[in-house]
Amino acid sequence: MNTPLNPLPENASPALVIPAKAHEKNGTDDPSKPDSARQLVLGLLFGVVFGFLLQKGGVAKYEVLMGQFFLTDFTVIKVMLSAIIVGMLGIFSLRALGLVKLHVKPTRYAANIAGGLLFGVGLGVLGYCPGTSIVALGQGNYDAIAGILGLMAGSYFYAETSGYLASTIEKIGNRGGILLPDLLGMRLAVFLAVFVPLLILGLCVMAKLAP
Fold this sequence. Notes:
Structural class: mainly alpha
Shape: globular
Number of strands: 2
Oligomer: single chain
Largest sheet: 2 strands, antiparallel
Number of helices: 9
Strand order of the largest sheet: 1-2
């Protein structure tokens, strides 16, 4: 009679054995994982398209970005409003069709305000935001290198202090993953029916007053 080499005691809890093939199947070959080949290729593709549109929209130019702060050039806010309208309709339409799932970042008032202030100061001093600095470098604006180095340093600093921030400032005003319709107590369909026309109207008025 053959006995196992390492017999389990009688009171041992049951163990889950995962076959090698099943384990490999759930590895990096899963196309839904963020580090899968499919996701990396899609990220690269959409990143190139995003950068191309930013450059063609003119929002990677120092004078255009600074013109928004001085209220002499409204290109940035026009592009942002257009992106919000298209993105809002596109994302919620795809979700209604079951083609995408929303991964809503948690709303943390204190952290969002502090991050927004740091972002605004950096944008005002440098003249570029993280996305436009990459595009600006691509079109030959070498002053954007300072912003890219700052982006890398800031990312490293945040990663190193994320544990401390999670236990301090991120706890202040933590509302979880909420959407604007939830905050306003409106149904999504009603929210879209009200806000999309208002945004389009605002965009048309801005195009008329500040062509």
